[in-house]
Design brief:
Blueprint (H helix, E strand, L loop, with lengths): L1 H16 L4 H11 L11 E3 L5 H7 L6 E11 L8 E15 L2 H21 L2 E4 L2 E3 L4 E4 L3 E5 L1 E15 L1
Parallel strand pairs: 1-2
Antiparallel strand pairs: 2-3, 3-8, 4-5, 5-8, 6-8, 7-8
Length: 165
């Protein structure tokens, strides 16, 4: 079962890292809202679930970042003769940091917009038994101390239907 989680996380990471993924969506936001390109650098996309405080202490966090991971698997056994046929609850954890509260709120909103835009553009069959129907939920965490003075996170969660042997 853990293999299913890793496979789907790699697929989501690949979609976000592609030329038509986050780099493209951030470029569209910069052009549409007439922002300076350096105000929205391309986020680092990591296929790992690490708490931000642990990441800062152990590895040295780099921001902005997006962490892709599987929160839960539900094997519904809807297809006969399949080892796994159900849903993978996926998450994209968006993290930004900065010195000013206003810029953090603006950045988190833009990166969430970019992530959801990429998901919207990639509805349908992802191949290898994965299908994304298009729904997602966004939750914002409050700004807190961390990173370069202040840190804010937002989480985009969505389900991917998976059928695997």
């Amino acid at each position: 079962m853990a293999q299913v989680a890793n496979t789907v996380a790699r697929a989501v990471g690949g979609i976000l890292k592609a030329e038509t993924g986050i780099p493209f969506a951030v470029g569209l936001l910069v052009a549409r809202e007439r922002l300076l390109p350096e105000s929205l650098p391309v986020a680092r996309i990591v296929e790992r679930y690490i708490a931000s405080d642990t990441l800062e202490k152990q590895v040295g966090a780099m921001y902005p970042s997006m962490h892709v991971y599987c929160e839960a698997l539900e094997n519904q056994l809807t297809e006969r003769f399949r080892t796994f046929s159900g849903t993978a609850k996926m998450a994209i954890d968006v993290r930004v940091t900065g010195d000013h509260l206003e810029s953090i709120e603006s950045q988190i909103r833009h990166y969430v917009d970019a992530a959801t835009q990429v998901l919207d553009m990639n509805r349908g069959d992802w191949g290898n038994g994965m299908f994304y129907s298009g729904g997602y939920t966004v939750t914002f965490a409050p700004i807190r101390s961390g990173g370069r003075n202040y840190l804010q996170t937002a989480k985009v969660t969505f389900n991917v239907n998976v059928s695997a042997n």
